Amino acid sequence: CSISTSQCIANAVFITEYVEGSSENKAIEIYNGSKSSVNLGNFTIQQANNGKDWGSDANFIYSFTASTAIPSGGIFVFCNVASDTELVAKCDQTPTSSVFKFNGDDGIALFNGTSVVDQIGNAMEQTNWSVAGVSSATKDHTLRRKTSVIQGTTDWAVSAGTTAENSQWEVLAQDTFDGLGQR
Fold it and tell me: For the chain, which domains are there?
């Protein structure tokens, strides 16, 4: 990594799975690909709800507690509190935050302080984004990051790609939870 060690570690924490399932089945998986445990006290997950900007509504910002840490190679899974029991069983936390009530046209971003380190979708847009050549893939699908991806990106167009080959994501059927909590 050509930047500071702390920045390299922060970039190695990124979103590896996104579940926009039926009804209230919503989940976000975060992975720590660094060689060190990472304290998430400075991180937030933010939703750009209904085409708004990141952080424009405090109800759509989830702040990690200062004691939350992900070990090297570890995964942390958040689910909407109203998700089915099958999904909740795979979750480390089920916050009541509105961040976890997305519906496919709301951008989701992982922040370290005030900097976006990874995102799904874009702020200031309200659309169901295409991913890997699949139209409206952020709605009624599970997106799983390819294991070849080793850090997040702030360029959603590059991340989403236009084909299965150039996308950072695999697009899976709605309510696919079998890989959640694994990398």
Answer: 5-172 (2.60.40.1260)
